[in-house]
Amino acid sequence: MRIAIYPGTFDPVTYGHLDILQRATDVFDEVIIAVAADSNKSPLFSLGERMQLLTEATQGMPGVSVRVFEGLTVEFARRSMAKAIIRGLRVMSDFEYEFQLALMNKKLAPDIETVFLVAKSDYSFISSSAIKWAASLHGSVSDLVPPHVEKALIEKYATARID
Ligand code: ADP
């Protein structure tokens, strides 16, 4: 069994994430989406909400599961019997950060590989932050996220106080 984890904040999940995930399932038998419990990004969606949105988005995808993790990503990979960490690369500016992270993870866990998948050009401009910014100003994000995620964004920004 080739198992990989796909870690991230997923605040919220986008078509960019789902494209990487879909392609990862072509290479690995099992892909565990690992939702970071301790993100330093002050997420808009709670951990429970992010899990729920991901679970609905990945329903019916064979070999995919969604789990929460705390602490070191490589330790979660080891506990999950995963040999690889999947990361998506969009633009060159992703590269420097991702490269550093991959080297650090290699130092911490030489037995685990980071596998980079390059974003599809249609999705390379998509980020959760850009989507939140557009949705907060009532722009349509229907081409960028699944319908239930768009609905959740609309509800969030209808109730959230925007300063
Ligand atoms: P993190 O907070 O760990 O960066 P994200 O949820 O923002 O987590 O993203 C998780 C992973 O998915 C990262 O490797 C990121 O580069 C990748 N990713 C995000 N958006 C896209 C996209 N549009 N296309 C391809 N990969 C993406």
Compose a concise summary of this entry:
This protein is an alpha/beta fold. It contains 6 helices and 5 strands.
CATH topology group? Rossmann fold
Q: At CATH's second level, what is the architecture?
A: 3-Layer(aba) Sandwich
Give the averaged pLDDT, no decimals.
94
Question: What number of domains?
Answer: 1
Rg to the nearest angstrom? Answer: 16 Å
Subunit arrangement of the protein: single chain
How much of the residues is beta strand, in percent?
Answer: 15-25%
Question: What is the H-and-E element order?
Answer: EHEHEHEHEHH
Bound molecules: adenosine-5'-diphosphate
> Globular, elongated, flat, extended or rod-shaped: what is the shape?
globular
State the share of residues found in helices, binned by percent. Answer: 40-55%
The CATH class, by name, is Alpha Beta
How far is it from the N-terminal to the C-terminal residue, by CA? 49 Å
Write the layout of secondary structure elements.
Blueprint: E1 3-8, H1 15-27, E2 30-36, H2 47-57, E3 64-69, H3 73-79, E4 84-89, H4 92-108, E5 113-118, H5 128-136, H6 147-159
